[in-house]
Amino acid sequence: MVVLSLSRLHLQYKPRPMQCVWRVSWLFRQHMLSPHPTSSIFPPISKSFNFDLPISDPESHLFKSSETDSIVAGFVLFFPNYSTFLAKPGFYIEDLFVRECYRSKGFGKMLVAAVAAQAAKMGYGRVEWVVLDWNVKAIKFYEEMGAQIMKDWKICRLSGHALQAYYANAA
User: Fold this and answer.
1) Gene3D superfamilies, from UniProt (predicted)?
2) What backbone torsions phi and psi does residue 60 show, to the nearest 5 degrees?
3) If you average pLDDT over every residue of the chain, what do you get?
4) pLDDT tens-place string over residues 109-132
5) Which has the minimum average pLDDT: 33-37, 80-84, 96-100?
6) 3-17, 63-77, 154-168: which range is least confident on average?
7) Is the CB of residue 118 less than 8 Å from the CB of residue 91?
8) CATH code matching the domain that covers 2-129, chosen among 3.40.630, 3.30.70, 3.20.20, 3.40.50
9) Which of 157, 160, 138, 158 is nearest to 149 (CA)?
């Protein structure tokens, strides 16, 4: 997971138990606002930002780390996957989020760039994610960074009752 704060950007991948995925907000608040052990594979990436005008962030107290005095502006949650088409591993971005008051300032691009840089450094074949077709701003953002929107692909999903029913019928 990569978390962007006003005083630092951390790129860190650690396998997490599935129950943590169910509570992303808890993981985000509890884990990402706490100090991180560094790793030789995923060292922290530090960036400093100077803005001409202060950013109005009425919720800054909810996203402030007491240890570092930094404010979390956004995060990207990603994990490794494998492409049989490329015969190479890659990263899948599950979620990219930049808080509203920090959008259009380059933070989203920086978060995706951190994942892409790690994938390239590791010799991975690609980074991929999905975007809702109605999210025109996001689609434009991704196309401007060079991402290819795969119009011929559709997402398939088994969840909830359908997943349970399929499991019951397949057994």
Assistant:
1) 3.40.630.30
2) -55, -35
3) 77
4) 888 998 999 899 999 999 999 999
5) 33-37
6) 3-17
7) yes
8) 3.40.630
9) 138
Q: Known catalytic residues?
A: 142
Lowest mean pLDDT among 3-12, 73-82, 130-139: 3-12
Euclidean distance between CA atoms 75 and 28, whole angstroms: 8
Phi–psi pair at 89, nearest 5 degrees: -75, 165
Whether the model clears a pTM of 0.85, i.e. scores above it, the answer is: no
Non-local (6+) Cβ contacts of 105 within 8 A are 51, 55
- Of 124, 126, 163, 165, the residue nearest 148 (C-alpha): 126
3-state secondary structure of 64: strand
Helix then strand count (H, E) for the chain reads 6, 5
Closest CA to 135 of 157, 108, 107, 116: 108
Which structure tokens are listed for 133?
Answer: 């077709």
Three-class DSSP labels, 69-86: CCEEEEEEEEEEEEECCC
